[in-house]
Amino acid sequence: MATATLRREGDIHILTMTNGNNGNVMNPESLADLNALLDEIENYDGNTAVVLTSDHAKHWCNGIDLALLKEKGIATVKQEFVPDMDKMLLRLAMLNAPVIANISGNCYAGGALLACAADFRAMRSDYGRFCFAEIDVPIVFSQPMQGLLNCLHNRQAVDDLILTGKAITGEVAAQTQVADFSGDAEASLAWCMELAATLAKKDRATYTGIKRDRRALLHPAFAALNN
């Protein structure tokens, strides 16, 4: 069963995580599904923008699959799975199209890093928490993950989140520049779709060049993971 789907509304690609009953967790299956859909977006001929969302009312993405951690152990997961997860996250961060995350529910650990990979983030104000839970898993941030953290604008807020493991609401996320917008579920999605419609009119190659230049700190890690 696929853990994500892709559809188009006009020039907008809507990438929806569909394993919300299991928290849209990250495991080899979900990475394979996301990578396949990123292939489609990368190869799409024409200007576009991507809205990354979930079909679940409570969960956006809860990070690495805890069942995988229990089965394999943290050391094995760090060695065998985290590099593949990092590669997918960096690929999304450098995608050749605008990416807007509609954080429609809980967004934890690897899910928060997935949100970092987007260009813009909207988060529900009426439900859900944003949290870097790595300190409590415990997993140390890899160098690619550290690069993704730099995609957020408020260094003080990022340090506070990653060093304490605290969970914040959408309202606080917007106040601290972790999110660009916060509203109820309907308003958050509407904001994402409106922004996506605007960005889908931009020249794709120009947008991609500006984004990738802006994220130059990610280039070494992206290159190393793809060698």
Notes on the structure:
This protein is α/β, with parallel strands linked by helices. The chain has a single domain (4-225), classed as 2-enoyl-CoA Hydratase, Chain A, domain 1, CATH 3.90.226. Helices cover 47% and strands 18% of the residues. It has 11 helices and 10 strands. Strands 1-2-3-5-7-10 form a 6-stranded mixed β-sheet, with helices on both faces. Strands 4-6-8-9 form a 4-stranded mixed β-sheet. A hairpin with a 2-residue loop joins strand 1 and strand 2 (12-17). Helix 1 runs parallel beside helix 4, helix 2 packs across helix 3 and helix 4 packs parallel to helix 5 (110-117). The protein is globular and about 45 Å long.
Please provide a brief summary of the model.
This protein is of the alpha/beta class and 227 residues long. It contains 11 helices and 10 strands. Helix content is 47%, strand content 18%.
CATH topology: 2-enoyl-CoA Hydratase, Chain A, domain 1
Helical proportion?
A: 40-55%
Major sheet size, sense and barrel closure: 6 strands, mixed
Query: What is the string of SSEs from the N terminus onward?
Result: EEHEEHHHEEHEEHHEHEHHH
Number of separate domains: 1
Give the CATH architecture: Alpha-Beta Complex
What are its keywords?
227 residues, 11 helices
Question: Topology, please?
Answer:
Layout: E1 4-9, E2 12-17, H1 28-43, E3 49-54, E4 59-61, H2 66-72, H3 74-80, H4 82-93, E5 99-103, E6 106-108, H5 110-117, E7 120-124, E8 130-131, H6 143-149, H7 155-164, E9 167-168, H8 170-175, E10 181-183, H9 185-199, H10 204-214, H11 219-225
Helix pairs in contact: 1-4, 2-3, 4-5
